[in-house]
From TrEMBL:
Residues 3-282 form the FAD/NAD(P)-binding domain. The keyword Flavoprotein applies. PANTHER family: THIOREDOXIN REDUCTASE 1-RELATED-RELATED. It catalyses: [thioredoxin]-dithiol + NADP(+) = [thioredoxin]-disulfide + NADPH + H(+). InterPro entries: FAD/NAD-bd_sf (IPR036188), FAD/NAD-binding_dom (IPR023753), Ferredoxin-NADP_redctase_2 (IPR050097). The lineage of its organism: Bacteria, Bacillati, Actinomycetota, Actinomycetes, Pseudonocardiales. This is NAD(P)/FAD-dependent oxidoreductase.
Length: 313
């Protein structure tokens, strides 16, 4: 057999699992496509002892730790996983396929942003989605919240962002608010500006306002949006992992899927997971994977022991 565990995805979840498994003397390799979800961000927050660090530096440190303990990092994208008689075959775009006893999928998700000019261009700078990641840095400034396809998230986001600033304007865009929804926003101290959003106004290298289709410009310096979260779960669904009613692959508390020997951790199965929770999920999955392999190892040892005892008799 090639490896004990192949990990698809080199973000916080995948690297945390890899470090734990490598320290447990398991042979482990991480397939890292090098496209982390938080790449546009310049700083990370809410990760104890690493506040303000760049996401790229955090991942570089994680990769160094994996290698230090004997794990491997392969710069490649996992393309597919197939079950075999004694484990799995993992295909990737960086060379020959890999064989493994178990698999962890930590491929994350992608953010589908509202199709408003300026949003994609300023994403991760002054167009953001997570108040816990960015709210403190834009506190007491002129904030816009833009309506998008993720209606429940967007409406919740507008009320939540109000904690960081008294100057919040909600632009429903194409969302038709109910009377109750509008009342709750207004009562919260949020100004509602109706009308379709034409674009974000960008002056130099900063958002300066929100322009409506009728040409009205509302000055703003930061825009929060509610992306539609789409898990990169093709490896899991390709294996036949069970999907829950919410459309996401189902896992237990350790990240175990319905397919024996396959785990998943991080944003690929948990859209709200931040860096710290993704890293924790990776560690939990790593422990569960090691226990899974241990059970197999003990069963094989017992079977060999019995065969040996029979021959000796």
């Amino acid at each position: 057999m090639g490896y004990d565990v192949v990990i698809a995805g080199g973000g916080a979840a995948g690297l945390s699992a890899a470090v734990l498994l490598a320290r447990s003397r398991r042979s482990v390799v991480v397939l890292d496509a090098g496209e982390p979800r938080n790449a546009p961000a310049t700083h990370l927050h809410n990760f104890l002892s690493r506040d303000g660090m760049s996401p790229a530096d955090l991942l570089a440190a994680g990769r160094e730790e994996v290698v230090r303990y004997g794990g491997e990092i392969v710069s490649a994208r996992a393309l597919g996983v197939e079950r075999s008689d004694d484990g799995f075959a993992v295909h990737h775009d960086g060379g020959a396929g890999l064989t493994t006893r178990a698999v962890l999928v930590a491929t994350g998700l992608r953010d589908e942003l509202p199709a408003i000019p300026g949003v994609r261009e300023r994403w991760g700078a002054d167009v953001v989605h997570c108040p816990y990641c960015h709210g403190h840095e834009v506190r007491d400034t002129a904030i816009a919240v833009l309506g998008g396809d993720n209606r429940p998230f967007t409406l919740h986001q507008a009320s939540l962002v109000r904690q960081w600033s008294a100057d919040v304007v909600f632009f429903p865009h194409r969302i038709v608010l109910t009377a109750d929804e509008r009342e709750r926003l207004v009562a919260r101290g949020i100004r509602v500006v109706d009308g379709e959003v034409a674009r974000l106004v960008v002056d130099g290298d900063r958002v300066s306002g929100v322009e409506l289709a009728d040409g009205t410009v509302v000055p703003r310096t930061t825009a929060f949006v509610g992306p539609r979260f789409v898990p990169d779960d093709g490896l899991l669904t390709g294996l036949g992992c069970a999907v829950g009613e919410n459309g996401w692959v189902s896992v237990d508390g350790s990240g175990r899927t319905s397919v024996p020997g396959v785990w998943a951790a991080g944003n690929v199965v948990d859209s709200p997971a931040q860096l710290s929770t993704a890293a924790a999920a990776g560690s939990s999955a790593g422990i569960a994977l090691n226990h899974h392999l241990l059970a197999v190892d003990v069963d094989e040892a017992v079977a060999n022991h019995r065969r040996s005892s029979t021959v000796d008799a």
